[in-house]
Amino acid sequence: GGAPLRLGRVVLAHEHGTYASPKSAFPLVWEGEAQQEAIIEADTDFDVEKIETESVSFEFTMDGKPVSYTVDLALRSASGRERLVEIKRDDRDLEDPEYRLKLAHVAEICRRCDIDFQVLLRADIFRSDRHRRNAAFVASRGFTTIEAHHLRRFEAHRREVGSTTSLGDLAEALEPGSPVLGEAIVHALVVRRRVRMDLAGRMLPSAPVSLH
Is 12 exposed, middle or buried (0-12, 13-18, 19+ CB in 10 A)? Predict the structure, then answer.
């Protein structure tokens, strides 16, 4: 059903927590900073429509022995494409040959089910430190209140300028005379997939955004 399968089962010695996202009906559990960062990146990725964590489990045999595996991240795109992601800090987490074989089995199962499977290293989550900082900032505003009049102003601005505008102009259109609140609403619309913005660039008022 999309809820985390391992929530509350164990007490972890390393950093862990939960993350709330408009893209998920359930709290997103994370274990380790790499998984937390992957959730933030997906939360601010326009192409990701739905996020789940620890929600998909595999059971199979390897050399006659039963094996179980729970995927870190399950993502669904707007097109309906499913992608399962195993997140690792670096290559050292993949040194165990038996573990690599387990992942190979999972990848083959996914291939036969026409589901994408990816092993993602922490260094590959964000394109740059700026991208990471911007994504975390925008994600923190994902639950900013968006009123009905904001959506009406959004549609009016899109009719006026077309599908492309700037961050500052959209913020002004949404909240005239209040650029800070207007910008927060724009960021919430990024998370809610109404605005697309390149978070690897500088988030200046002149930064281009596209309206959807």
Answer: exposed
| Residues written for the chain | 212
pLDDT digits (tens, 9 = 90+) for 52-95: 999 999 999 998 999 999 999 999 999 999 999 999 999 999 99
Residue 93 phi, psi (nearest 5): -75, -5
Low-confidence ranges of the chain (pLDDT < 50): 8-9
- Find all residues with CB under 8 Å of 203, minimum gap 6, and list them: 134, 137, 167, 197
What separation in angstroms does the CA of 195 have from each of 40, 41, 82, 94, 190? 17, 15, 22, 37, 5
The enclosing H or E element of 74 equals strand 73-77
76 touches 48 (CB < 8 A): yes
- Cβ atoms of 184 and 144 within 8 Å: the answer is yes
The span from the first CA to the last CA of the chain, in angstroms, equals: 29
d(CA 55, CA 36): 15
